[in-house]
TrEMBL record:
Protein's membrane topology: Multi-pass membrane protein
Subcellular location: Endoplasmic reticulum; Membrane
Domain of life according to the entry: Eukaryota
Classification via InterPro entries: C2_domain_sf, Ig_E-set, Sec63-dom
Protein known as: SEC63 domain-containing protein
Major site of localization recorded for this protein: endoplasmic reticulum
Native organism taxonomy: Eukaryota, Metazoa, Ecdysozoa, Nematoda, Chromadorea
Length: 224
């Protein structure tokens, strides 16, 4: 009888460049492309989150890789095809709901974004439901099964959503979201801090299959 154990197929250190999950890209090439560049940002550059594709974006993608990396044309095409396949989930139309109150907080952005946003006023200790409309980019956006050539078993691509206080590193909520096909609504419960004051509500979305497509968003909250 042959026993087969499931082991680790691919891993990264926390300080590895996120683009090193893509084929052919090493740390030096990835840093030349941009120290903070990620797979979701590359997908945005290819307009994968838009309804209509833009062929001119693919040309710009290739030109950038030719200018800043050591990859040849075939390798660049393989990188671009990999970027297109990544089923990245992005949140849209975000709402905080409590009893008869619903607050639209869709005007949020990535952590560190220099945007002028209003502080969302909430009651201390209030329990909110955070409702998100999730949309998937990539050519595999309607597929439930993950594309994992080196993994010996079938695996559905799910997501973990965490809400936390960015200032105190306190976890406020955790929820697992099953595979998203195209689009889906997700809900998680978030209890606001009992102490009044301002804090950044950090929303983290993590894939349970893919490296390099985790995302973090910030929502400015004022507890009254």
């Amino acid at each position: 009888m042959v026993r087969r154990k499931l082991g680790m197929v691919r891993c990264q250190w926390y300080d590895d460049h996120p683009l090193t999950v893509l084929p052919h890209l090493d740390e030096s090439d990835a840093n030349r492309l941009g120290p903070d560049l990620t797979v979701p940002l590359l997908q945005m550059g290819l307009s994968l989150f838009e309804e209509k594709s833009d062929s001119s974006k693919e040309k710009k993608f290739k030109q950038k890789f030719v200018a800043k990396t050591t990859l040849d044309e075939k390798q660049i095409n393989e990188v671009m095809n990999a970027v297109k396949r990544y089923p990245t989930v992005t949140p849209r139309h975000l709402r905080l709901v409590a009893k008869n109150e619903e607050i639209d907080v869709s005007d949020f952005g990535s952590v560190g974004a220099k945007t002028q946003r209003k502080w969302i006023k909430v009651s201390a200790g209030a329990l909110f439901r955070l409702k998100l409309d999730l949309h998937v980019a990539g050519s595999d956006k309607f597929a439930a099964e993950a594309f994992l050539p080196l993994w010996p078993k079938e695996k559905a691509a799910g997501w973990m959503i965490l809400a936390a206080d960015l200032d105190t590193d306190q976890l406020l909520s955790f929820s697992y979201v099953p595979p998203v096909r195209g689009s889906q609504c997700a809900r998680i419960e978030v209890k606001m801090p009992s102490k009044s004051g301002r804090f950044i509500l950090s929303l983290v979305m993590m894939s349970d299959c893919y490296l390099g497509i985790d995302q973090e968003y910030s929502i400015p909250v004022e507890v009254c």
